[in-house]
Structures are given as structure tokens and as C-alpha cells.
Automatic annotation (TrEMBL):
It holds the Pfam family LMWPc. The active site is at residues 13, 19, 130. The keyword Repeat does not apply. GO terms for molecular function: acid phosphatase activity; non-membrane spanning protein tyrosine phosphatase activity. Its EC number is 3.1.3.2, 3.1.3.48. It catalyses: O-phospho-L-tyrosyl-[protein] + H2O = L-tyrosyl-[protein] + phosphate; a phosphate monoester + H2O = an alcohol + phosphate. The keyword Hydrolase applies. GO terms for cellular component: cytoplasm. It is found in: Cytoplasm. Its main location: cytoplasm. Acts on tyrosine phosphorylated proteins, low-MW aryl phosphates and natural and synthetic acyl phosphates. Belongs to the low molecular weight phosphotyrosine protein phosphatase family. This is Low molecular weight phosphotyrosine protein phosphatase.
Length: 145
């Protein structure tokens, strides 16, 4: 009997240096711990060109190191081919979702299921917010308004 086709998932956020490389690294560790890593193609990408070529954000790297999750990634932008070569494209917020759907609609016969990663959260936290400016700036903003 032929082996089933590998499953595939692409995690996407705005810059591919914070949320999506962490999601990729954690998912890969979960697959490895479950003994099914060889059955998955796992990657991450950006909707934007902001950080192409960059390593993951230092805060995320520190967090992954603290929790023993290997993370190694070079930021890239999502490509037309991704919309037909990945079974799932899972993103972080509504901006990512609308941008991905806009890009997908430029691809003839795209097959990827484009969803919010948070839609799988048992605690129903659908949106994974962009941490780029950190909580301090949000605190500052809250003191100003
Ligand atoms: N944009 C926005 C934005 C809005 C709200 C919260 C966060 C962000 C934000 C900003 C970033 N880079 C600074 C602006 C980049 N430049 C914007 C104008 C074009 C030239 C590039 C990020 C970089 C990597 C990952 C996530 C990021 N997220």
C-alpha cells in the first residue's frame, strides 16, 4: 500500500519573525514528540516584505530556548506556489487573513485551506496579536488615551 501523502502546514504572520516562526517551531516539536515529524511538511512565511532574510525576533528566540524548543528560520514572504503546495495556511489575525485571501484569489485553482490558527484554540482565543511593539507601548498608549 502506498504511503499517504505528507500533510503540510504553513504558518503566516505579518513579518515572519515573531508569531509564525514560533508556531512553526512548536508545531514541529509536537510532531517530533508524537513520532510523526516525517509525515509533515512544516514552514512559516510573512504576508509582508518587512523582514525578508531576518532571523526570528530575539524575544521569541529567548522564549523558545527557555522552553527547549529548537527554532531556526529565515524570514520569507508567502509565494503563489504556497497556495497550491500547502494543505493548510494558518495565520494569526484578521489582517493576515484578509491579505492571504487577497493573494490567494490571484492564484488560479488554489487548494490551501486558509484559516486562523486561533480557530483551533480550545480556549477560543481566535486572534494572536502582533507583539512587535511589545506590551510597553500598549501600556504607554493606554496612559495617553
Ligand atoms: N506595520 C505595522 C505594525 C502595526 C501594528 C503593530 C505592529 C506592526 C509591525 C511593524 C513592524 N515593523 C515596523 C514597520 C515596518 N515598516 C512598515 C512600512 C513599510 C516598511 C516597513 C513589524 C515587523 C516585523 C513583524 C511584525 C511587525 N509588526
Amino acid at each position: 500500500m502506498a504511503a499517504p501523502a505528507p500533510k503540510s502546514v504553513l504558518f503566516v504572520c505579518l513579518g515572519n519573525i515573531c508569531r509564525s516562526p514560533i508556531a512553526e517551531a512548536v508545531f514541529r516539536k509536537m510532531a517530533m514528540d508524537a513520532g510523526v515529524a516525517d509525515k509533515w511538511r512544516i514552514d512559516s512565511a510573512a504576508t509582508s516584505t518587512y523582514e525578508i532574510g531576518s532571523s526570528p525576533d530575539h524575544r521569541g528566540q529567548a522564549c523558545m530556548k527557555k522552553h527547549g524548543v529548537p527554532m531556526s528560520h529565515v524570514a520569507r514572504q508567502v509565494t503563489k506556489a504556497d497556495f497550491t503546495s500547502f494543505e493548510y495556511i494558518l495565520c494569526m489575525d484578521e489582517n493576515n487573513l484578509s491579505e492571504l485571501n487577497r493573494k490567494a484569489n490571484l492564484v488560479k485553482n488554489y487548494t490551501a485551506k486558509i484559516e486562523l490558527l486561533g480557530s483551533y484554540d480550545p480556549q477560543k482565543q481566535r486572534i494572536i496579536q502582533d507583539p512587535y511593539y511589545g506590551s510597553r507601548i500598549m501600556w504607554l498608549a493606554s496612559t495617553l488615551w
